[in-house]
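Quick sanity check, GntR family transcriptional regulator:
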Amino acid sequence: MKANVSDTPLIRPLPAMDRARQVTEALAHYVEAAKLKAGDRLPAERELMAALAVGRSTIREAIRHFQALGVIETRMGSGTYLLKPVSKATIHMPLSLDTAHLRDVLLQTLEVRRGIECEAGMVAARRRTASDLAIIEEKLDEMERVHQAKGTSGPEDLAFHMAVYHATHNPLFGQLLEQMRETFERFWTHPFDREDFARRSFPFHRTLFNAIAAQDPEAARAETLKILEIVEEDIKEMSK
């Protein structure tokens, strides 16, 4: 009997690996191959740009990734130094999820995201500095600008949440997001091929900012929950 074409598994194209991720892995390989130890200095930014044939912004994004993981530090006027050894096997935390079922993956990820982001919003509201607030507002303004121009603002939305994480002054929030970034980014890449996914949550990013500005942790938690409740509703509605 001839197999039904609809029953044949599809081989989907691989996602393009972004340049910053490639640089991150190249740096981890270099640290491992060169047997660098804590306290050793990494090559200068210009050296890395020339060796890897990428721009300054890509190098800096990879450096920020390692800083978020707490494995390197940049000393003003001195350079970038290794705080602890890394390898390609340790820079990403493998997550075991059934990626064939997007609805289930998003709901499972949302459970984790809800706990982390509510707490991050509350901590940011308590600890944010004037400088933190300026950065969060800058990311929010850009998110609103892009959203109004295009009707969607995935990368800018992510940048806003990252700024909130940084305002906690607890490096573990940033480290957790970096390690789970690939899974979390499913929320910012038009799930179910819908440009309007979670669009209704857009206004609550401004009210979340207002709560952090007012240093009101409970209000920050409430506004974060409003965002994530809409995300959950859209996952369930759009996956029917």
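Posting the structure with no commentary besides this: Strands lie at 72-75, 79-82.
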